[in-house]
UniProtKB/TrEMBL annotation:
The lineage of its organism: Bacteria, Pseudomonadati, Pseudomonadota, Alphaproteobacteria, Acetobacterales. One of its GO terms (biological process) is sodium ion import across plasma membrane. The keyword Lipid metabolism does not apply. It is a multi-pass membrane protein. GO terms for cellular component: plasma membrane. The chain crosses the membrane at residues 36-56, 63-83, 89-108, 115-137, 189-211, 217-236, 257-283, 303-325, 337-358, 378-402, 414-435. It comes from Komagataeibacter diospyri. Pfam families: Na_H_Exchanger. This is Na+/H+ antiporter.
Length: 561
């Protein structure tokens, strides 16, 4: 982002709002918060995030909704500081790791197979929603510049498939739908951010050329693609040479910021650079990381993404309270906000359905007559994909990064907040019901390529392991040297193959087996802790044996899934 976008924005994290919308005196003591005070406040927010996450799970609410509502509730507490955030700081702190994490965990094969549909959703759908929201905003708020309307459209355009995935993880869907939703979350973020960048520059400079913007967009995307691949290749080579897991995890944590900042510095798209680097690294992860590094890397990133996403949701709730305070006692909300925001929310919801109806209709029309789905599957697909338009963390990060000089900045932030709240609460809590009503949960295998089940794949893996052990179990003279291992792997292969054919009948015995195994692991862990607490073993022995028990427990818990 251009440095000029942040001009006029106080970089201090917490600031006292003065002037015509002066905040009540209860905040005066918080106005000049020290660095220690800011750090303590962020720690307090993280503690509250943990509590809000537990409440969301208890009430079976979408976590994003609980966090946003919690942010508002926190802001209403007397004495809580009003948050003012440096726009450039938001983009560079929050976006790169979230983008790379989403790309890293993408299913590469499915992503490549459905690339055309993903581009149609991410680029075409994002541009269509941006245009629809821009036109509606200009009609509802005539004095708002066209470029600002386009910026708002780009902010609310990208659906957050991470939120959709969290909602849908217990509801099976056809592979095509799942892949489209997950792939969309990667590319629509990049497309919307580039559109937002152009629109913001147009607002701040007052000039915009379609031809120049199109050419610039092409070179930004191409530069991001090339630089992302190059950075990922360099990182993979470095990681292959660094065999220390702490250093390799640290290097991987640095990659999103290196990619984002590097892309921006050389004139490419930092967003596309980060996404491409994450895709390539995720594709090669099985060659780059050892099992131990991969387990630890995934755990570190899971915590990092959780904290960053949660902080963004809480911060938008607190920021909304600051907007209300600035306009307290004025008819601004009723006269200038309610009607435009309601219209923008309606356009965001309807535009996705319109786009899905048009694009899926065109796709089906070009299919051979024998492969065309019936009316019910067609409308089921449109209904589910249209209803999976929950907005989330990317929209929040962008709207928090709006320059202070942006016209109608407060309305844009409120509109984005309401769009997120409506989609997360409305769509997120009812998508399971929509899937059941359309029948896609029952007919999820229709029209998609057959894949092996988990039990079938385990049986094939167990047979290959048994075959390898048979070749290693005998010495050159024919004498068996690994009889115990051969017996163990032969038993595993026989049991896995039998279970793959009689899963229903043997499920109870399998679960009982793994529960018994978990009980023995618990007993071993208790004895290990007793030996350590009585001083009979060293800490190094404790950590080594505890790691072995952890791996055994992970295997047993995986068997119960």
């Amino acid at each position: 982002m251009q440095a000029g976008l942040a001009q006029g924005t106080d970089p201090v994290l917490v600031r006292y709002q003065k002037g015509p919308w002066q905040i009540p005196g209860t905040l005066t003591g918080m106005a000049r918060m020290s660095n220690v005070g800011r750090f303590e406040f962020i720690l307090l927010l993280i503690v509250l995030i943990v509590g809000l996450e537990l409440v969301a799970r208890k009430l079976r609410l979408p976590p994003a909704a609980a966090l946003v509502l919690g942010g508002i509730a926190i802001a209403l507490v007397p004495g809580v500081p009003v948050i003012g955030i440096d726009p450039d700081l938001v983009l560079i702190v929050f976006l790169p790791p979230l983008l790379l994490a989403g790309a890293y965990f993408s299913v590469w094969h499915a992503f490549r197979t459905h690339l055309l549909g993903i581009l149609q959703l991410a680029v075409g759908g994002g541009a269509f929603t941006t245009l629809a929201v821009a036109v509606a905003t200009r009609w509802l708020i005539p004095f708002m510049p066209w470029a600002a309307c386009a910026a708002l459209g780009a902010i609310v355009a990208p659906p957050d498939a991470v939120a959709a995935k969290a909602v849908l993880k217990h509801v099976p869907l056809p592979e095509r739908m799942t892949t489209l939703l997950e792939g969309e979350s990667l590319l629509d973020d990049a497309a919307s951010l580039v559109i937002y960048r152009f629109a913001t520059v147009a607002v701040m400079t007052g000039s915009f050329g379609v031809v120049h913007a199109t050419v610039t967009f092409f070179f930004l995307a191409l530069g991001g693609l090339v630089l992302g691949c190059a950075l990922a290749w360099v990182w993979i080579r470095l990681l292959a040479r660094v065999r220390d897991r702490i250093l390799s995890i640290t290097m991987t944590l640095l990659l999103p910021w290196v990619a984002y900042i590097g892309g921006e510095q050389v004139g490419a798209s930092g967003v596309i650079t980060t996404v491409v680097a994450g895709l390539v690294l995720g594709w090669r992860q099985h060659d780059v990381f050892s099992a131990d590094e991969r387990l630890r890397w995934a755990a570190v990133w899971e915590v990092l993404v959780f904290v960053l996403e949660s902080l963004v949701f809480v911060l938008i709730g607190i920021s909304l309270h600051a907007i209300v305070l600035r306009h307290m006692g004025t008819p601004w909300v009723a006269q200038d906000v309610f009607r435009p925001v309601a219209g923008i929310v309606a356009v965001v919801l309807v535009s996705r359905f319109v786009w899905m109806l048009m694009t899926e209709g065109i796709r089906v029309a070009f299919l051979p007559r024998g492969r065309r789905p019936g009316w019910r599957p067609f409308f089921s697909f449109v209904a589910i994909m249209g209803w999976c338009g929950m907005r989330g963390v990317v929209s929040l990060a962008i709207v928090l990064a709006l320059p202070a000089e942006m016209p109608n900045r407060d309305i844009m932030q409120i509109a984005t907040f309401v769009v997120i709240l409506v989609t997360v609460l409305g769509q997120g809590t009812t998508i399971g019901w929509v899937i059941r009503m359309t029948g896609e949960e029952r007919g999820q295998s229709r029209g998609q390529r057959h894949h092996l089940s988990v039990s079938q794949a385990r049986a094939l893996i167990a047979r290959s392991q048994e075959h390898a052990m048979r070749q290693l179990a005998f010495a050159p003279d024919g004498q068996i040297v690994h009889s115990r291992l051969l017996e163990q792997y032969a038993y595993r292969a026989e049991l896995a193959e039998r279970f793959s054919h009689e899963q229903q009948a043997l499920q109870g015995r399998k679960d009982a087996h793994y529960r018994a195994l978990l009980a023995t692991i618990d007993a071993g862990r208790a004895e290990l802790l007793r030996l350590h607490r009585s001083g009979e073993i060293h800490d190094a022995v404790l950590h080594q044996l505890e790691h072995e028990l952890d791996l055994q427990q992970m295997t047993a818990e995986g068997g119960l899934i």
